[in-house]
Amino acid sequence: MLSKQGHNPVYALLEFNLGGGVVGGKMISGHYQGEQMAILGNRILNGEKPESIPVVTQGANRFLYDYRQLQRFDIPESALPVGSIIRYRPDTFYTQNKQLIWMIVWILTVQMLTIVMLLANRRKRLRAEAALLETQNSLERRVHERTASLKDSELKFRNLYDTAMVGLFRTSLSGNNLLEANPALAKMFLYKSIEDMKATFKPKDVYINQSQREQLLTLLKRDGYVEQFEIEAKRQDGTIITVILSATWYPKQEAMEGSIMDITERKKSEQAMLEVSHRLELAAHAGGIGIWEVDLINERLLWDDRMFQIFQTDPDEFQGILSDWSDKLIPEDLEKTKKLLMDSIDGKANFDTEFA
């Protein structure tokens, strides 16, 4: 609210305020605090005793800034501290509209080729009208030229099909026959060539869970197509991969065609992130670390379960206001700790202290 109504830059202490109108500053970052806790947790998990690990006295603060606010207040990036991290930098026009730009280029190219072909056909037609009495050899020559043009078009389409980065296919709806495939699909399922794949590959047998195939067929028959349908598939050597399948059903031909993308590595990365998050939770619990957060905009205090244990507070009685914390301090520490907190909110000091 201050940033929207005021005419001067507003700076903040906590990272989650970035993006809400503040310029930025040296902020307390939950992300970088999490990195530090993860490092400590790994040391404990690797066998070090918690009491032998020195107390971390230097905060995990970073200089973080909002690009939009820097532009608003005409603050040059050269004036920022070395190592500053700038967020919310707008994407370039190309990045924002990459798909649209390429679609327009493709449409314009197709239109240009169409116009060229129409002009060429018109010219040929005019020539044909002027040469109705030409010999049969001349007619055969023109037929030959047209055939060569069609073959060239077919070759271009085949080149696009064969060089695609994702697997492309056409199969019978029964799942017994692979009608068409590109090299990327053969490579994905560990076949040496498309011919080898067509000879032995049965699409219905790649499903680890046949109920997934039944669900896929149900959707195809109901909607005529599916998009981003995730399945587990078995490759030639028996290994299992996770893929995303998009397909269209052609009822008259009793066939479907579409594309397959291997997302196995992406799924592994997602699982690794979940494991890291679990390890961080274990590390925080093992280290006796409580995590707290102050929402300055809404004046709310947030605690994790460990904070309730440290301050011996019943979560049902916790109101989420600063007094829930300050009332727990002994009188000797109360005033200096509250003052340091206010100074840190104003950007005058870092809230790094000990109290009882």
Total domain modules = 4
Helix content: 40-55%
Distance between the termini: 35 Å
Oligomer: single chain
Number of helices: 13
Q: Compute the number of strand runs.
A: 10
Succession of helices and strands? HEHEHEHHHEEHHHEEEHEEHHH
> From the alpha-carbon coordinates, what is the Rg to the nearest angstrom?
33 Å
Structural class: alpha+beta
Q: What is the CATH C level class of the largest domain, in words?
A: Alpha Beta
Topology (SSEs and partners):
Layout (H helix, E strand, L loop, with lengths): L1 H4 L18 E5 L1 H16 L15 E6 H6 L12 E3 L5 H4 L1 H33 L5 H27 L4 E6 L5 E4 L1 H6 L5 H7 L9 H14 L1 E10 L5 E11 L4 E8 L1 H23 L5 E4 L4 E4 L1 H6 L12 H4 L4 H15 L11
Parallel strand pairs: 2-3
Antiparallel strand pairs: 1-2, 4-5, 4-8, 6-7, 7-8, 9-10
Helix pairs in contact: 2-10
Overview of the molecule:
The protein is α+β, with helices and mostly antiparallel strands and 356 residues long. It has four domains: 1-90, no CATH class; 100-162; 167-267, PAS domain (Beta-Lactamase, 2-Layer Sandwich), CATH 3.30.450; 290-356, 2-Layer Sandwich (Beta-Lactamase). The chain has helices at 2-5, 30-45, 67-72, 93-96, 98-130, 136-162, 183-188, 194-200, 210-223, 264-286, 305-310, 323-326, 331-345, and strands spanning 24-28, 61-66, 85-87, 167-172, 178-181, 225-234, 240-250, 255-262, 292-295, 300-303. Strands 5-4-8-7-6 form a five-stranded antiparallel β-sheet, with helices on both faces. The protein has a three-stranded mixed β-sheet with strand order 1-2-3. Helix 2 packs across helix 10.
